[in-house]
Amino acid sequence: MSTEREQIVDLTTKLVKIPSISIEPKDAPEDRVRKRDAAVQVLNLVSEYLARTDGITSETFENNGVVSRLWGSRETFLKPKLLLSGHIDVVNAPTNFFTPKLDKEKLIGRGTGDMKGHVAALVMAYKKWILENKSSKGVGLLLTSDEEVGGFNGARYVIEKGLLRPGVVFIPDGEFSFNIVDSQKAPHHFHVKAMSKDGGGHVSRAFKIDNPVNHIVSLYQEMRKKYALATPDNDWQSTFEMTAFSTGNGQGENKSSNSANQIAEWAEAWFGWRWPLEVKIDGKPATYQTGMADLKDLAEKYGVEILKDEHGFGEGCYTDPNLDSVKRWIRVIEPIVKQPVNFQHMHGATDGRHFYKYGSDVIVTSGITGGAHSDHEWVDIDSLVKLSEAIYRYQKEMTK
Fold first, then answer.
1. What's the pTM?
2. Predicted confidence (pLDDT) per residue in 339-369, tens digit
3. DSSP character at residue 113
4. N or C: which end of the chain has fewer CB within 10 A?
5. 87 near 372, Cβ under 8 Å?
């Protein structure tokens, strides 16, 4: 009989070998189909792993090609005391990244740490608990396939359309080495566009041609004065950055890029704003509404249009260290890892924000991982074994 370590390596390897890359809005129809099929393949692999487990049912949800699957007991299917939640989508990578390599205690490859190794730990712990308990009552498992691109068609869809309302959500995702995330920054992404009043023209006549680039740069500089507050020494503050910029001429089929000696007809930019829910700006809590109000005022001032494809909407996540669910997890995990568990901030975001919005306790932690989204992504195998054992015990603790 194989050991738990061997089982985790085997299941993680099988999951990683399936290139379940996130579906993105820009994808061609054939790419969306291919990515959807890969996600279904991963979900089916998990279903096969759980197939001979009594007392469990499942339902598949789909929105805009994004597939998610929920497992649980019929009695507590949409209202489990505890939901084990993970994502199976990964960022793109060369083909060879999807063949994981074993290097002593590390498994290396795309998705090993973010987060298919953690999914393997979840699934193994879930199966072990159900086999012992003879039922999945009180605990559910949700796997989604769009966390890397926001989670709105995955976790958010299942919550809002499927009416999933767990008491506690456990998400092993990130690089936290068993620490617990107490706060995740709230994200929002603005998309803006400016048009030249003169239709662009040769740069030699810049003194008489309205340049749309200047409109956006002026707006950007003023927003940064108020919202770009984080520094290397004080990073738990708001950040506001331009993440993409383009210029061009014409629209639709006549759209073209402009040359180096040409003032563009139009300019577009994306801004990424992230801020801690508990931090104040100008003495007031920062919210999506306050940021949007400032952006609208400046957009009017500088002749910039705010486009409709914004996303994020400032939904962060805060976990109170004094929650009973958190204290129970700490009591379970610390004896297993033989180290104190601390709290730390997260500059990014997880699907936890979607559950937090609807009132669930959210626990985000992880095994020992590194290099997420890079060419040296890895996960420590022993940490997954310990994490899986802790998740197994936590299910028992939360369903007493």
1. 0.89
2. 999 999 999 889 999 999 999 999 999 999 9
3. I
4. N
5. no
Q: What is the DSSP letter of 307?
A: P
Residue pLDDT, tens place only, 243-275: 999 999 987 666 777 788 999 999 999 999 999
- As a whole number of angstroms, the distance between CA 369 and CA 390 comes to 17
pLDDT digits (tens, 9 = 90+) for 87-133: 999 999 999 999 999 998 999 999 999 999 999 999 999 999 999 99
Do 298 and 190 meet the contact criterion of CB atoms below 8 Å apart? no
**What are the tokens at 84?**
């084990």
For 239-272, b where at least 16 C-beta lie within 10 A, e where not — what string? bbebeeeebbbeeeeeeeebeeebbbbbbbbbbe
Q: Distance between CA atoms of 400 and 386, rounded to whole angstroms?
A: 22
Q: Looking at the chain, list the stretches that DSSP marks H as alpha helix, in order from N- to C-terminal side.
A: 4-16, 29-50, 117-133, 155-160, 212-227, 288-302, 324-337, 352-357, 381-398
* 154 neighbors 146 (Cβ within 8 angstroms): yes
Domains of the chain plus CATH, in order, are 4-184+316-398 (3.40.630.10), 186-306 (3.30.70.360)
Q: Is 60 helix (H, G, I), strand (E, B) or coil?
A: strand
In single-letter form, the type of residue at position 78 comes to L
* Residues 6+ positions from 167 with CB-CB distance below 8 Å: 79, 80, 81, 82, 325, 360, 361
Return the CA Rg of the chain.
Answer: 23
Query: In angstroms, what CA-CA distances link 364 with 80, 99, 350?
Result: 18, 27, 8
One-letter amino acid for residue 15 of the chain? L
